[in-house]
Design goal:
Elements: H1 11-26, H2 31-40, H3 44-55, H4 62-70, H5 76-79, H6 89-100, H7 104-123, H8 158-165, H9 173-184, H10 188-192, E1 199-200, E2 205-208, E3 219-222, H11 225-236, H12 257-266, H13 282-293, H14 298-304, H15 312-317, H16 323-337
Antiparallel strand pairs: 1-2, 2-3
C-alpha cells in the first residue's frame, strides 16, 4: 500500500498512515478499499449534476429542466466543492441562511432539492444519513406562506375584454391561442402545445394527451360552437399536417407564455387583484366563478378544469367525465365570453357543495 511520495508526505505522516492501515487490517477492514471508496465520493456539485441528469427525462418542459439545477446556484458557491461525506447540517444551514427569510419559497425549494441530492448519495453509500433532515433546527422559522392566486378577470368583464382585444379579424397567433384558452378554460401550456392530431371535428372534441396534462391523465375537452369556429378559421388559413401546432408562432415554433401575457399587459386587463394585470391562467378562475355564480354543478365545472377528485375512495369508483354535461356548460360559457349570452340555464338547477 503506497503512502505517498517523499518529501510531499513527511516521514512522520507516512508512519501515522502506516499505523492506521495496520489497525484497519487488525480490525478486519481493507485500508486500500476504504481509500478507494473515499476517493470516489463526489463533491456536492458533482452529486447534484448526477441527480439532475437522472431527473431530466421526467421533466415536462425545458423551463423546469433549467430551473431545477439553476436554483442550486444559491448554495453551490458555499458547498459545491465539498465532498458529500464531509457535509453537515451546519454547512447547509449556512448556505441557505441568506435566502431563508428573504425569499422563503425559493429557499424551501432549494432545500428540497438539496435533500433529494443527499438522499441519492445516501442510497449510493456515499453518506450515512441526510443532513437536510435536521437542518430546520439550525434555521429560524419561516413565516407561513401567503396564498397567492393567479390574478383573474372578473367573469362579468370577460365579454368586454374579448370584444375589445381578441375578435378583431384576422384572429391568429397569440390572440387566437388566448381566445381558445378562454373558451375552453384550459391551461395556456396545453393550448400552446395543441396539435391538429388532438382535434376531432366530427366529435367536436379536443383530447389533450396525458404527457401534456398536469395530472398526467388524458383530458377530453368538449368544443363549443365558438371554439370550433375559431379552429376552423385557423385551419382555413393553411393546410397543416396533423402533427403541426394549432397556434404556432411566426417561426412555426410553440408560442411562449409571454406572448399571451403581453396581450393582457398591453390591454391593462382588469383583474381581481389590486395593482396586477389578469393572467391567462386566471381565466380558469373566471370560468369557475361564472359557473358557481350561475348555479352550475360544482363537480361538472371541476371536470371541465381537469381537476382531480380529492377523495381517493370516490375517485377510484367514479369513472364518468360528465362529457355531455360539460359540453352544454361550455356552450353557455362560450356564449357569455362572446357577448351572446341570454338566460343562463344551469345544468341541474342547483349547485352541489
Amino acid at each position: 500500500m503506497g503512502l505517498g511520495v517523499y518529501p510531499d508526505v513527511p516521514v512522520a505522516d507516512a508512519l501515522e498512515k502506516a499505523k492506521e492501515a495496520r489497525q484497519a487490517i487488525a480490525a478486519g477492514r481493507d485500508p486500500i478499499g476504504e481509500r478507494e471508496r473515499r476517493a470516489a465520493v463526489p463533491t456536492f456539485e458533482e452529486a447534484a449534476r448526477f441527480r439532475w441528469e437522472q431527473l431530466v427525462p421526467s421533466f415536462r418542459n425545458a423551463k423546469h429542466r433549467a430551473q431545477w439545477f439553476s436554483s442550486l446556484a444559491h448554495v453551490l458557491p458555499a458547498i459545491g466543492a465539498i465532498r458529500v461525506d464531509a457535509l453537515t447540517p451546519q454547512h447547509f444551514a449556512d448556505a441557505l441562511e441568506p435566502i431563508w427569510l428573504q425569499i422563503p419559497e425559493t429557499a424551501s425549494r432549494v432545500k428540497q432539492r438539496c435533500a433529494d441530492v443527499m438522499a441519492t448519495c445516501w442510497a449510493q453509500g456515499h453518506v450515512k444519513g441526510n443532513p437536510l433532515d435536521v437542518v430546520d433546527r439550525l434555521l429560524p422559522k419561516q413565516s407561513a406562506p401567503v396564498d397567492q392566486h393567479q390574478p383573474a378577470m372578473p367573469w362579468r368583464d370577460v365579454p368586454a375584454f374579448v370584444s375589445a382585444h381578441l375578435v378583431r379579424a384576422p384572429i391568429i397567433g397569440a390572440h387566437a391561442a388566448l381566445l381558445f384558452a378562454i373558451l375552453t378554460a384550459a391551461r395556456s401550456g396545453e393550448v400552446r402545445g395543441a396539435t391538429w392530431a388532438e382535434i376531432d371535428f366530427t366529435e367536436r372534441l379536443w383530447t389533450v394527451p396525458a404527457e401534456r396534462m398536469k395530472a398526467h391523465r388524458a383530458h377530453r375537452v368538449p368544443l363549443s360552437d365558438e371554439a370550433v369556429k375559431l379552429l376552423e378559421a385557423q385551419k382555413a388559413a393553411r393546410t397543416p399536417p396533423a402533427a403541426a401546432l394549432v397556434f404556432p408562432s411566426m417561426k412555426g415554433t410553440p408560442l411562449s407564455d409571454m406572448a399571451l401575457t403581453s396581450i393582457l399587459r398591453s390591454a391593462h386587463a382588469k383583474s381581481d387583484t389590486p395593482g396586477r394585470v389578469a393572467t391567462a391562467h386566471g381565466f380558469r378562475a373566471s370560468f369557475k366563478n361564472w359557473a358557481t355564480d350561475c348555479g352550475f354543478d360544482g363537480e361538472t365545472s371541476e371536470r371541465a378544469l381537469a381537476h382531480t377528485i380529492a377523495n381517493k375512495v370516490r375517485a377510484a369508483y367514479e369513472r364518468t367525465t360528465q362529457l355531455e354535461a360539460r359540453r352544454a356548460m361550455m356552450n353557455q360559457w362560450a356564449a357569455h365570453v362572446m357577448g351572446q349570452a341570454a338566460n343562463v340555464v344551469p345544468l341541474r338547477g342547483k349547485r352541489r357543495a
